[in-house]
Design a protein that fits this description.
Blueprint (H helix, E strand, L loop, with lengths): L2 H15 L6 H17 L4 H15 L2 H5 L3 H16 L15 E6 L6 H14 L4 E6 L6 H12 L2 E2 L10 H14 L4 E6 L7 H14 L3 E7 L4 H13 L4 E5 L8 H10 L3 E5 L7 E3 L2 H8 L5 H11 L2 H13 L4 H13 L3 H6 L5 H8 L4 H12 L3 H5 L6 H11 L3 H19 L1 H8 L6
The structure holds guanosine-5'-diphosphate and magnesium ion (MG).
Magnesium ion binds next to helix 6.
């Protein structure tokens, strides 16, 4: 995700760190690098120009120039402006009081609207809400089917509309409202028609839906892979129907970042969520600060923590962190940790969230992929409790016995032990310790 932009901006940071003083000349060089990075990421040229001006103005400020670490200051300025570009602070989804809250999703065909309806409803349900889904599309009755399947998969409530109800759309829309209340739902997620391009007929239909349902939020769903096209159509939807917020989908792909970095300033509307995969749990609240740090290579320890807190037993995590700090980390703990990693999603995703460089680079080189985690678990399961506590005692014959027990080759047992010892060594290093001690796990 945004890999290229990220590595280019990290080069700028590296270049600046190598300079003792900030001068007109090296600043011009840095700005040029930034401009190229953004243009290559398909960011709107006006947004880029604006960004450049702001950085220049702030960086050439005397306080920055006279500070002890001017380059660090400039890097921070770039990060802060990047954050501003992404919307500055996290904006929460708006709810109506009294309920129901109605979320109307709009966007072009293929942008991920229907999928996102399912994701959003699932997210609402996890929040303790009782959502209902409905698909309103005058032209394509088959649209019902797709949403129906999604709601069944996710065990959500679906209000199905039949073809004859589409002959009197206004009446049907009013019925949707009364049914939401009658069935006791506090939230309604509305999927709407999409087209390949914005046309007047679609806009008329969406305006009618909006006028009658009076949604709490009209959310534009944009495919980040389409870059500036997503931005342009967002602008059209904003002009013709009016939006309250944005969800960007497919940020897991090789989107260059242009949509994410332009859409907020162009439309003036905040990004509230991002879709990061086809599955229904690949849906995240959007945090401009974390995204900016991630792009600048400062990692995203906060997102990681949030994920860990959500999905792992807090007490277990706390104990683990304590052990990691005190060096009592055994293979038994390693096994527990592998189990938690499995819960947290793919290993590569996990590693992506760690700050780059140093120890973490080493960790990603360890080549721990998801099937390997399963094998590692099987191997550890074949060890005795004593062996798990004292891995140093596992000699050649023990290794053979373990390999036979779990049906994996001895070479894999060797590899596991090697990686375990490497990991222990790594934990002694300061960077890792610092990260652990910054984890707010000991409440
Ligand atoms: N990789 C990825 N694919 C997505 C995401 N959101 C949606 N999709 C895929 O995009 C395609 C179109 O989605 P759909 O919900 O039918 O779009 P709609 O026409 O706007 O309703 C489907 O293949 C989805 O699985 C996402 O966040 N990441
Ligand atoms: Mg659809």
């Amino acid at each position: 995700m945004l890999d290229q932009l990220s590595s280019r901006l990290q080069k700028v940071a590296k270049f600046l760190r190598g300079e003792v003083k900030i001068t007109e000349k090296n600043m011009a060089e840095a700005l040029k690098m930034i401009r190229m990075a953004f243009l290559e990421a398909d960011v709107n040229y006006r947004v880029v120009k604006d960004f450049e001006l702001k950085i220049k103005e702030k960086a050439m400020d005397e306080k920055v120039l006279e500070s002890l670490t001017p380059s660090q200051h400039v890097i921070k300025i770039v990060r802060d402006e990047l954050m501003a570009m992404l919307g500055q602070e996290t904006k929460k989804l708006t709810f109506s009081s009294p309920p129901p809250s109605i979320f109307m999703l709009v966007g072009l065909q293929g942008s991920g609207k229907t999928t996102t309806c399912g994701k959003l409803a699932k997210w609402l349900k996890n929040l303790g809400k009782s959502p209902m889904l409905v698909s309103f599309d005058l032209k394509r009755p088959a649209a019902q089917e797709q949403l129906n399947i999604i709601t069944q998969t996710l065990n959500l409530s679906f209000y199905e509309l039949f073809e004859d109800q589409m002959t009197d759309p206004k009446k049907t829309l009013k019925k949707i409202l009364t049914e939401t209340k009658n069935r006791g739902h506090d939230t309604l997620v509305v999927d709407t028609a999409g087209r390949l391009h914005v046309d007047e007929e679609l806009m008329d239909e969406l305006r009618m839906v909006k006028d009658i349902l009076k949604p709490t939020e009209v959310i534009y769903v944009g495919d980040s892979m389409t870059g500036q096209d997503a931005v342009k159509s967002a602008q059209q939807f904003e002009e013709k129907i009016g939006l309250t917020s944005i969800i960007l989908t497919k940020l897991d792909g090789d989107a260059r970042g242009g949509a994410a970095l332009s859409i907020v300033s162009v439309t003036g509307k905040p990004i509230k969520f991002v879709g990061v995969g086809e599955k229904y749990d690949k849906f995240e609240v959007f945090h401009p600060d974390r995204m900016a740090s991630r792009i600048m290579g400062m990692g995203d320890v906060l997102s990681l923590l949030e994920k860990a807190e959500q999905e792992t037993d807090l007490k277990e995590a706390e104990e683990l962190a304590k052990k990691l700090r005190s060096q009592e980390f055994s293979l038994e703990d390693f096994r527990k940790q592998l189990g938690q990693l499995k819960k947290m999603g793919s290993m590569s995703q996990f590693l992506n969230m760690l700050p780059t460089g140093g120890v973490f680079k080493q960790m990603s080189k360890m080549n721990v992929d998801d099937t390997r985690i399963l094998y590692f678990e099987a191997i550890i399961n074949s060890m005795t409790a004593k062996e798990r506590e004292n891995p140093k005692t596992i000699n050649g014959s023990r290794r053979k016995r373990i390999a036979r027990g779990c049906g994996r080759p001895v070479s894999e047992v060797n590899q596991l032990l090697k990686q375990f010892f490497e990991m222990k060594k790594m934990m002694k290093k300061s960077q890792f310790k610092r990260m652990l001690s910054s984890m707010p796990m000991e409440h």
